Amino acid sequence: MEQQYRRFPDWNLYFDKMRYLVFDLPPENYQSYPFDYLRLLSSLMLLAGQEIPGGCLRPGRLYRLECENDDAALTELLQRYDGKLQATDALLEQKIDAVREEQRPRISDYEAERSFCANVTVPVTPRGDFDKSDLYVSGRELGLSTDCPTDEAAFWDSARSASDKAIHRLIKQPARALGKALESFRGMNRISDRQAACLDGYQVEDVREHIHTEEQAMLDTGITMAENLDACRVRIDKADHQVRRKIDARMTRKCTIAMGLVLLGVFLVGCLPMLVKNLGAVAARGTALGLTAMGLAALALTAVVCLFFLRRALRRKVYTYNDEVAELDRTVTGMMDDYSRCLSHACNVMRGCSVVAYHTAHANPEDARIMVYRKHQSDIRRQCGGGSGGRCSPCFSPESSSRASRSRRHTPTNLTARWTTSILSPMPSDSGPSTFSSRITGWCCRWRTSRA
Hints:
By secondary structure, the protein is of the alpha+beta class. The protein has twelve helices and five strands. Strands 1-3-2-4-5 form a five-stranded mixed β-sheet, with helices on one face. Strand 2 (18-25), helix 2 (33-48) and strand 3 (62-64) form a beta-alpha-beta unit. The radius of gyration is 50 Å and the shape is elongated. Mean pLDDT is 76; it is low at 403-452.
């Protein structure tokens, strides 16, 4: 319905190129207000979701917005909705009665102590694929000279490089093991509300005492610091330097043979006068040769023993290096054990605190559940407009509302407020073949009294 209000935009100080729709909406104290308000929302939804030709709404015109509804279908829909709300209200009342009748399960003090005061251990262990045998260097391949059977300098460089890589992986194990332990820590640091609800006040007090004990134990737990690892690395480097010095001081195979020949020559030169002097006598000759042979055997045995002692000294340096690596291994293991103890105490504290927090927040969980159910019932009864006698009353009737709306429209003293809805249109001119865009760019909704 179009009305010729040429000065309507000027009276209301509206922008140009706007389309105007007016809808009759009664005040809120009218009986038909809910139904008319529903018609208004339906009209706006239909208008916003449909393609409107450009010639239907022109600037500078005032159009009346109406929406015809099927009162019978709307009544049936609202009655079904009321029936669902009434059934939900009755179901909530049944749940409230069930909550009042149910009893919370209880457990004995022994079961409570075993379940809630037992110490949980959070393991902090290295990865399973880490082989600690790579940390150490075997000294069995060391010979009597520095290049026999293998080159000791090259052997030590290779073994030291492999050991250093293993040490580097070992030092990274505590951080990785700690990260892995934290994953299991997240699943162990809490007790379910269902279990916590089984405790009474005295058992919760025992849990508080257990929390205090675990907190004190956690504070008393000493953590191995990273400075200890640095000190171990310094001692390992020092042992490595001593092994290299000992290898550099050892003789090669050629040098050992040459020195043996020199010692043999010196010994024979020293024994030569005795052999020359006793060559004439048969008995003295045998004695001289026997003494010479014994001297040679003693000299050879002494040389071999000296070589074995020199190799033993080198091996002792290698074993010292292995001892320092073992000390680093024990330090890293002790660090992970400290992490495990600290996490275990913290886990026990958090488990106990979850129980205490649950009982603090749910001192009487039955009343809390009933309060939630009552809140739902209050929302349902307020929606139905009821509340008298604790029952959900039916909603308004569309037939009566429409009759009241029709009688209101013919009342001479019409104080009906009009909801003026202005649609911002992108059309560039007042007329043209282009269609009106379905996208509504904005709504300007204002209340005004009837002026025409």
